[in-house]
Amino acid sequence: MGKGSCGQNLFTGKGKSRECAQDSFPTICGKKFDGQNHLPTVLKRRPFGREFVPLEIHLKNCYHFAMKIYLATGNIGKKREFQEILRGFDVVIPSDEKIEFEPEETGETFYENSMIKARELWKIVRAPVIADDSGLCVDALGGAPGIFSSRYAGPDFMRGLPDGKKIPQDEQNRLLLEQVSAAIKSGIDASLFPNGPRSCRYACSMVLLFSPERFFIAQETMEGALVESLALARGEGGFGYDPIVELPYMGGRTVAQLSPEEKNSISHRGKASRAVVSQLAASFS
What we know:
This protein is an alpha+beta fold and 285 residues long. The two termini are 21 Å apart. The chain has a 6-stranded mixed beta sheet with strand order 6-5-7-8-9-10. It has a two-stranded antiparallel ribbon with strand order 1-2. Helices cover 25% and strands 19% of the residues.
């Protein structure tokens, strides 16, 4: 029987276990190969009360290596967030391995686009892939820019410029705030908006794909409200629209003012990733 560096039997779970766990999470250091890509997975976990402990296990402590997860993005900021969320995993984006990856996102929903990206990268790497599609949905704009958030270029180019080029983020932020202010001045009925007239939310659809036939998916949101003007944008963290999205339940701070730990605990992406990984763990319980 093999043993982890903690001295615990990898297959029976007997022996020392707490030394394998991140911080003081009680867990059993397990190893299992599923016959595809020799994927190491968690064999089982000890319950803590009535709840299973988080699946943030330091695999390096147990196996001397981290499980590699490919992330279907070219966004360095998104990679940093995922690495914080998926501690103990080696998060790799295509550019890290000089892989050319620019899939055509033709979906009409966050889910469709996340699945397109996951399947296209899987065809190249034939290894576990996480893909997400996320964006900012503004109630005063009927949910726009939504899936076109990264390409948004103002009211005349809601789905992006004809040449496909992206404008600077500061310009996107300015145009979005001006468009929302114009919509509010036009007399739009904001009585049903959950977070006031500038109500918005980030949405994230995430896929964890092992093969085209085997995958898990989750979609989550993070509620907020836009600041009134670009002069009120603040914060150095995060990326994208984060400096102009306020969170009333976080003391009125913007998303960009949160620490990485705070953001991951409440963000659309953090919640979706935990849901996907917990579903994976449950399938092997």
